[in-house]
Design brief:
The protein is α/β, with parallel strands linked by helices. It folds into two domains: 230 residues, TIM Barrel; 47 residues, no CATH class. The protein is 49% helix and 12% strand. It contains 13 helices and eight strands. It has an eight-stranded parallel barrel, surrounded by six helices. Helix 4 packs parallel to helix 5 and helix 5 runs parallel beside helix 6. The longest helix has 20 residues. The chain is globular. The chain starts with a helix and ends with a helix.
Length: 288
């Protein structure tokens, strides 16, 4: 199966799939190497990795380049963040064309006003349900590969309430989306309601510090969720690790005190597949 078919299989089977987030291509390789069956490219992650907050400041062209590099570097399905589709319905058409060419297995698109905010920031605004239904229809009509997964996200919980957000997601599923995503439920009971009320496969966003309670994968599976994205854990870990080693360098003038916590030179090379590339180099230079 190709990655899009693999993602379809993950969604169709019973049970819950954890999809850790990656903020760059190397991190996506580490997610795959850790044994996870898919990787999530978080828009907030690649915004912050570029030095910007999660406020919709990067363009579709910048994001697609990153997505394409990552898809090429891993063998597992890649789910990408498409924000609001970068505009209205005709912008969504262009976005879907570019995302499809990148090779991504699936993407989520949300009903915030563009430019969007992080789903757990205050002050979000949403477009009308009717306009978002049109955007989902545009996305479904535009994709050439029916295997590419469209995930419809609603941020209406913070603006119109939970029931309205669920109603929106169900309308988006009816319009052609494959997976529903109610962003930022605020209690365990709200998660339960979402799990049983969305009329299709259900995705949940899981990270510490947001509005949604942190629950174990087993609990989310019992509630009926099929996919869980874990967008920020690897990035927050990397920020803290970099801060720690930089503090030691500043204080000591070297990193000996902390070297035992860092990966080795060889481990770094293994993470990027150096040996495989060297073998290819030898193969094609052998007869030169």
């Amino acid at each position: 199966m190709n990655p899009r078919q693999q993602l379809r299989r993950l969604i169709a089977r019973s049970g819950y799939t954890m999809v850790p987030g990656a903020y760059d291509t190397l991190t996506a390789r580490l997610v795959e190497a850790a044994g996870f069956e898919a990787v999530y490219l978080t828009g907030g992650g690649y915004s912050r990795a570029s030095g910007y907050p999660d406020l919709g400041l990067l363009t579709v062209v910048e994001n697609v380049r990153f997505i394409g590099l990552t898809v090429e570097a891993v063998g597992v399905p890649v789910i990408a963040d498409a924000d609001t589709g970068y505009g209205n319905a005709i912008n969504v058409i262009r976005t879907v064309r570019e995302y499809e060419k990148s090779g991504v297995a699936g993407f989520h698109i949300e009903d915030q006003v563009a430019p969007k905010k992080c789903g757990h920031y205050e002050g979000k605004e949403v477009i009308s349900k009717a306009e978002m239904v049109g955007k989902i229809k545009a996305a479904a009509d535009t994709r050439r590969d029916a295997e590419m997964v469209i995930i419809a996200r609603s941020d209406a919980r913070a603006v119109e309430g939970l029931n309205a957000a669920i109603d929106r997601v169900n309308a988006y599923l009816e319009a052609g989306a494959d997976v529903g995503f109610v962003e930022a439920p605020q209690t365990v009971e709200e998660l339960r309601i979402v799990g049983r009320s969305v009329n299709g496969p259900n995705l949940v966003n899981v990270f510490e510090g947001g509005k949604t309670p942190m629950l174990a994968a087993s609990e989310l599976e019992e509630m009926g969720f099929r996919l869980g994205i874990y967008p920020s854990q690897t990035h927050r870990a990397a920020i803290r690790a970099a801060q720690k080693v930089l503090a030691v360098l500043k204080e000591d003038g070297h990193a000996k005190r902390i070297e035992h916590e860092l990966c080795t030179f060889q481990e770094r090379e293994e993470a990027v597949g150096t040996a495989a590339w060297r073998a290819l180099e030898e193969k094609y230079l052998r007869d030169v």
